[in-house]
Hints:
Layout: E1 7-17, E2 23-37, E3 40-48, H1 54-64, H2 72-75, E4 76-83, H3 85-97, H4 99-103, H5 108-122, H6 127-133, H7 138-142, H8 150-162, H9 164-175, E5 185-194, E6 217-224, E7 230-237, H10 242-256, E8 262-265, H11 273-282, E9 285-290, H12 293-299, E10 316-319, E11 328-333, H13 335-364, H14 371-385, E12 391-395, E13 400-404, H15 406-414, E14 418-423, H16 432-440, H17 442-455, H18 467-490, H19 515-523, H20 535-543, E15 546-552, E16 558-562, H21 567-576
Parallel strand pairs: 5-8, 8-9
Antiparallel strand pairs: 1-2, 2-3, 4-15, 5-6, 6-7, 9-14, 10-11, 11-14, 12-13, 15-16
Amino acid sequence: MVKDxxxxxxxxxxxxxxxxxxxxxxxxxxxxxxxxEDGKVRNETVANLSHLPAAAITAVRSVLAGRDLVDAxxxxxxxxxxxxxxxxxxxxxxxxxxxxxxxxxxxxMRDLALALIISRAVAPAPKLATLTAWDDVTLGAxxxxxxxxxxxxxxxxxxxxGRQDGIEKSxxxxxxxxxxxxxxxxxxxxxxxxxxxxxxxxAKRGYSxxxxxxxxxxxxxLLTDPAGCPVAVRVFAGNTADPTAFTAAVxxxxxxxxxxxxxxxxxxxxxxxxxxxxxxxVGGLGxxxxxxxxQIAALAADTGPLQMSLFDEQNFAEITHxxxxxxxxxxxxxxxxxxxxGRNRLDLLTATEKSLAxxxxxxxxxxxxxxxxxxxxxxxxxxxxxxxxxxxxTITDTTLTVTRNQPNIDTETALDGIYVIRSTxxxxxxxxxxxxxxxxxxxxxxxxxxxxxxxxxxxRPVHHHLEHRVKAHVxxxxxxxxxxxxxxxxxxxxxxxxxxxxxxxxPVAPATxxxxxxxxTATHTSTDGLPLHSYQGLLKxxxxxxxxxxxxxxxxxxxxxxxEPTPVQRRAFQLIGTPIPTTLT
Length: 585
């Protein structure tokens, strides 16, 4: 026997089936030496290694095979790991849409502007907080904006505002021109957001659509295509009326964007009769909006064309009236809306009577005297619930009589759930159901406002005080919302979004969800079995795809290396249509 012969590790496996019928496998790892004796190969067990950890056994095998073992930390070290996937996704969609080129030629200002837009889309925060955050994501290093000064950021905002007209003209040509928008429709709506100071000349007190009473605000109007893609934005003083803002939209569409024969779609507060008269004088633009309640009541008079029998077979019908020459009127009745309004009215009537009861008791007891004092107390209650039109009052210095105005209530109840759309779109261009659908598309603008204000972009509150900086802030948020609109649609498969909503057989009825969307909601998985997220949750998940700076050896090179993507992260970039970029350049 040759005692100095080499040793090796062998693994023996024994299979055993127990009484329970379950097969078990036992492994034995032996350190053995082979040698030749009397012309035959013999084996000798040197040690039983079975009690060692698997990693130790693997190490023994490697050493015996002639490989040198070294400490992993001495070979490679992770110098830094930073979030990458979320900014990479927004950057990729920006590249796909050609946004960097629209922002201007390559340079410091363009990179800063692009970084501000991407940051607003992934992690909205005040500008100074955004500056600090650039050091903590790959965006800062890749666009060379980490360490930028506040003066540079404000200069980038000014740079961005100076390019607004050109960018919006490009968007208008892309989304509103006849080839992309054969219906020739542009949707428009107005909203507001509160300000943190009073020095900005745009900060005025007005009707707050956010319910923020007592604070100055600005207003801004959004122009979108029929699918709700943001195309242009305009900023106004906080006390601007809807019709005035609409005039700015008309000017933008007709003059700035040079679009002809467009149909402006807006709600009844935006496109009033006075604005339609102005549109007629301008020429070249149509409209699609809804009538106000008094106008509907006039159509529903005894001799009017709007009668309940119109809705015997379906929930919409086309009518005409000489007060609207050259226009189409589509009357709609939504039974669900009618029931809801009826319940609300009854609740408000009951609440008003309950609030008036103590006043009646005080008057009857002689504790409240004087018609002026009684009227003041009653007026506050009626104003709170906005039910004055539904009550008949008799007030003297010593008496108060309150009764419901039942004829008035009945008249209003008859019109519950009824709305009438007026439009210049001809029947050859769009049937009655299409007119209703076009008006309902305004819900897409409302979604954009929600995205802008709170859900995705956090436009409000506005912390800037110079007028041009406030406008630059809104435009910056608008561009981030534009990217978000496209990224939401692109990644719909990985969220709870209904990718294929059913076509409505009744355009007036509430929207329904597809079976695929119901399956996603029930199982919380995509059609491919991937876990679903909300859109914001998906961005957070993408952020866990980090880029790691790996250094090989003590003085070796540093190699940026992506973490292994999850299946969801891989699928997200497949949907965007690009490989996962290691760097944003």
